[in-house]
Write a structure and sequence with these properties.
By secondary structure, the chain is mainly α. It has four helices and no strands.
Length: 90
């Protein structure tokens, strides 16, 4: 398997684990400390970025990126975030 692909898959699995570790799903959508974005929005942004550049640009998947929503959407369920991560891995 390509080294870069392994690296991205490993890090997407780590992202999935981090999102899963939140005991309270609402905390995924809270800003704390010096963070400027919620963990949920960062998850959406990572998936959007990878789907855009590797999917749409390199793989010609037809993915249409809605970058503004990656930072404005709120209260997406943990299940939907994890599904997004899994779909990004494909």
């Amino acid at each position: 398997m390509n080294t870069y692909k392994q690296l991205f898959l490993k890090n997407l699995d780590a992202l999935k684990k981090e999102i899963s570790l939140y005991k309270n799903e609402e905390d995924v959508w809270k800003i704390s400390g010096d963070m400027k974005n919620t963990p949920g929005n960062l998850c959406l942004h990572i998936c959007g970025n990878l789907n855009h550049f590797f999917g749409a640009e390199l793989g010609k998947t037809g993915y249409i990126r809605e970058r503004d929503l990656e930072f404005s959407r709120q209260n997406v369920s943990r299940e939907e975030l994890i599904t997004g991560i899994e779909n990004t891995k494909k």
